[in-house]
Amino acid sequence: KAGVTQTPRYLIKTRGQQVTLSCSPISGHRSVSWYQQTPGQGLQFLFEYFSETQRNKGNFPGRFSGRQFSNSRSEMNVSTLELGDSALYLCASSRNRDFGNEQFFGPGTRLTVL
Amino acid sequence: KQEVTQIPAALSVPEGENLVLNCSFTDSAIYNLQWFRQDPGKGLTSLLLIQSSQREQTSGRLNASLDKSSGRSTLYIAASQPGDSATYLCAVRPKNTDKLIFGTGTRLQVFP
Fold first, then answer.
1. How far is B61 from chain A (nearest CA, A)?
2. A52-106: per-residue pLDDT in tens?
3. A83 φ, ψ to 5°?
4. Any idea what the Cα angle at residue B20 is, between residues B65 and B67, rounded to 5°?
5. Residue A52: which of A35, A34, A30 has the closest Cα?
6. How big is the CA angle at A108 (ends B56 and A111), to the nearest 5 degrees?
7. Which pLDDT belongs to residue A89?
8. Residue A45: its chain B contacts at CB < 8 A?
9. How many angstroms separate the CA atoms of A97 and A55, rounded?
10. DSSP per residue over A44-61, as a string?
11. In what order do the strands lie in the sheet with A5-7?
12. Residue A1 pLDDT more than 70?
């Protein structure tokens, strides 16, 4: 069974641009969460989607948004990029919204903002 | 507010040693605790998941314990190998939330 996949794996953008990252969960998984990882802040929760609805959002500005499609694939978008948005963006999937579920992470997208 | 701490921040040991990584959390109202491994520049690999009603979980050379009342978990690695070198992260899932709260990690180096 294929794991969580994320595309692209690497991105270089300049300040002010926008970017879209994609995540395909494990087949049969319907919950997708996004996390940002930076050396200074560690891993921080961005948002979680289930059944095409955002269920929870972390403490990030409105420039960070996302969506989920009917096939459970998810995208996150960052508009008006800032230098501080440089990070590893990780996507995690779980079977459903049972809070006891194990979370499985993808390889991440490394975003560099110049 | 849930906070997760991992000690030590870094550890360097010779191959073959048994070692213990520590994770502590401030609020015992959790659904579960999960241990992950992260290789440099890569994503997270799930190692063990312990539900709040469980005391420990084992997978191969790894054993994780959970003492929810004291807010502690330990990851025991037996007979360490150079391939175990990575950063180990613990994360708790607080009750009534969709997110994981991560510790800052323990960077482990096992040298031959």
1. 20
2. 999 989 999 999 999 999 999 999 999 999 999 999 999 999 987 777 788 999 9
3. -55, -35
4. 25
5. A30
6. 140
7. 98
8. 99-101
9. 10
10. EEEEEEETTEEEEE-S--
11. A5-7, A19-24, A74-78, A64-68
12. no
Integer Cα distance of A66 and A62 in angstroms: 10
Arithmetic mean of pLDDT over chain B: 95
- Residue in chain B lying closest to A56 (CA): B98
Tell me: pLDDT of A28 over 80: yes
Which residue type occupies B21? Answer: L
Share of chain B above pLDDT 70, in %: 100
CB atoms within 10 A of CB B9: 11
Considering CB atoms only, which of A6, A92, A99 is closest to B31?
Answer: A99
Sorted by sequence, the CB contacts under 8 Å of residue B89 that are 6+ apart come out as: A43, B6, B35, B36, B37, B38, B44, B102, B103, B105
Mean pLDDT of B12-32: 95
At A77-92, the pLDDT tens digits run 999 999 999 999 999 9
Q: Does A10 lie at the interface with B, CB-CB under 8 angstroms?
A: no
> DSSP secondary-structure letter at B79?
S
Written as six digits, the tokens of B9 are: 């921040």
**Residue of A103, A110, A111 to mutate, testing the B interface (most B Cβ within 10 Å of its Cβ):** A103
